[in-house]
Write a structure and sequence with these properties.
The chain is an alpha/beta fold. It contains eleven helices and six strands. Strands 2-1-3-4-5-6 form a six-stranded parallel beta sheet, with helices on both faces. Helix 1 links the parallel strand 1 and strand 2.
Length: 213
Amino acid sequence: MSSRRVVVIDDHDMFRAGVRSEIGASVDIVGEGADVDSAVKAIVAAEPDVVLLDVHLPGGGGTEVMKQVHQRHPEIKFLALSVSDAAEDVIGVIRGGARGYVTKNISGAELVDAINRVAEGDAVFSPRLAGFVLDAFSGAIDISSVDEDLDRLSQREREVLRLIARGYAYKEVARELFISVKTVETHVSSVLRKLQLSNRHELTRWATDRRLV
């Protein structure tokens, strides 16, 4: 079997370099992209077997990349590779056309196996994430209400929401996202207002009920 042709899309240069180093001997990495525009150009130019796609990208996110590419090349397969294991990210990217979703703690050998399986038409998920997909189809997660509420929040507000709901202090959120504590406070106030919640305890319960943490 010839090497799978792969394009790697992620907005962190170091992460793309790490993927290339980890799996470059087993697959043929034929392109890279760091935002929606560069991703679409790289994918259309290379026409790879599989695209490794980060969910959160400047310019509209991974779903926008899939939408634009599939208009021209519906046969190209996408495998989401993300640090996020939140239900709405998993469901959103699968709805957008990805054939699988794995998290960034996956080993190189497991990633190569996932790429080969997706290229052959299989769907591949990290075990915990497969549960989200099944729950969504069974109705255990009300995806429409999750989408509607989350659509009110910016990408940064969603990140802050998730960390606060996981019990991070404001200082820890600031350090994790490379922003000031004052900016964290501003985002939390905005999230509470948009979701009509009163405090971080309600916010945590809201996020937990929707399986966002």
